[in-house]
Amino acid sequence: MNPILEIRQLHKSYAGQPALRGVDFSVNRGQIISVLGPSGCGKSTLLQLIAGLQQPDGGEIRLRGEAVSTATRLVPPEKRGINMVFQDYALWPHMSVYDNIAYGLKRKRSSSSDIRANVEELLRLLHLEPLAGRLPAQLSGGQQQRVAIARALATQPDLLLLDEPMSNLDMRLRIEMRTELSYLLRKLGTTVFHVTHDPEEAFAMADRLVIMRNGGIDQIDSPEACYREPATASVASLLGAGNRLAGLVDGEQAGPAIRTEGAVVRGRTAACWSGRQSAGPAIALFRPDAAAWETEGAHADGALAAAEVAASAEPDAPAAPLNAAAFNRLSARIAHSAFEGNRWRVLAELAGGEMLSLFHHEPLRAGTRGQLRVPVDETYLYPAAAVSER
Ligand code: ADP
């Protein structure tokens, strides 16, 4: 399939400070790409270069096969077949909802019957019919956002740019809108380049994620692949792996592992792990959701004991279903439990003072001793250098 947008070795600096350092990827027709990364990583710069609002210092941007941005060539924004929804929506304050949506079509000199049919269809799709006669100032934030999207879709752009489109909405509306918008854009087959710092918004919208850090790309993959196999420590922490243990690579173990002060922690590794020197500094990351708590003495003793009894009574029986080897076990003491509605967020402290989070269905008393049990498959190991590059 021919890509509609190709970004090749794109470089951009501001006053000698690089904001983009050789960014490279392409977008196929009908795809929704979300660019995700922390503030300052270069997302807006990339978006503005694609829109034609800024010029690169090096590399090129090709749209439909044509070079539209290089260090020496800049096709102006209005000649790119691109529309953009800005964070602040930028609606025409003196025009009704209807006229805001019709504006681009009128400029394109579409026939009045085409304009009417098109605008009415968008009003319907975006649930704006009852608001067609209102001015932007008479609309809520969520309604204004829907008008901005309808206006951007009206001229059927080859590429729609969305810049943090939910940032001005409250949380409930944001969750509702991102699901609706992702459904609508897919139904219309729109090609979308979407920029956000919110992983949940990126997950809800994207076919493919481009995860940026410090002007470069850490990972390009499906949202599921980025979540399950984060390519770098910063992708893992951006996508929720907030628990962190530092240690040294332990080459004695059968699989990849690090040795922390109190434990051997095994885990999955990404490409950046290969060639790791034994005893070099490394970290283990895991999500609070991955950890389960077992209180000392009182833990899942029932199940464990039953399995052991079964195994000893029948020596040839298959191994007990509880495969202890597939978990990391970390001795800890409960520090605090905080109510979060459908669960409790619990802080547990290791002997070395590290605080780790986990979730539990009930509060755990401070001081309780036990173990965090974390699947090896959901523990991610990275060389420590990958973190300090940040
Ligand atoms: P993001 O959108 O991910 O927050 P930006 O693209 O806005 O990141 O910024 C990337 C880097 O470029 C940051 O260090 C920022 O301070 C810098 N930057 C962005 N725009 C300008 C500008 N107009 N002038 C100078 N520096 C800028």
Write a brief caption for the model.
The protein has helices spanning 43-51, 97-107, 112-125, 141-154, 171-188, 199-205, 223-228, 233-238, 301-313, 385-388, and strands at residues 3-14, 17-28, 32-36, 58-63, 66-69, 82-85, 159-163, 192-196, 208-213, 216-221, 243-249, 257-259, 264-266, 268-269, 281-286, 292-295, 327-339, 344-350, 355-360, 369-375, 379-383.
Keywords summarizing the entry:
single chain, 390 residues, alpha+beta, Rossmann fold, OB fold (Dihydrolipoamide Acetyltransferase, E2P), 2 domains, six-stranded mixed sheet, globular, disordered C terminus
Bound molecules: adenosine-5'-diphosphate
CATH topology of the largest domain: Rossmann fold
Name the strands of the widest sheet in spatial order. Answer: 6-7-8-3-9-10
How does the helix and strand content classify structurally? alpha+beta
Q: Specify the CATH architecture of the largest domain.
A: 3-Layer(aba) Sandwich
pLDDT < 50 stretches: 301-322, 386-390
Cα gyration radius (Å): 26 Å
CATH superfamily of the largest domain: P-loop containing nucleotide triphosphate hydrolases
Description:
With about 400 residues, this protein is of the alpha+beta class. It has 2 domains: about 5-230, P-loop containing nucleotide triphosphate hydrolases (Rossmann fold), CATH 3.40.50.300; about 290-375, Nucleic acid-binding proteins (OB fold (Dihydrolipoamide Acetyltransferase, E2P), Beta Barrel). Helix content is about 25%, strand content about 35%. The strands form 4 sheets. It has a 6-stranded mixed beta sheet, sandwiched between helices. A 6-stranded mixed beta sheet has the order 13-12-11-15-21-14. A 5-stranded antiparallel beta sheet has the order 16-20-17-18-19, with no helix packed on it. The radius of gyration is 26 Å and the shape is globular. The two termini are about 35 Å apart. The structure holds adenosine-5'-diphosphate (ADP). Adenosine-5'-diphosphate binds near residues 37, 39, 40, 43 and 45. Adenosine-5'-diphosphate binds near residues 41 and 44.
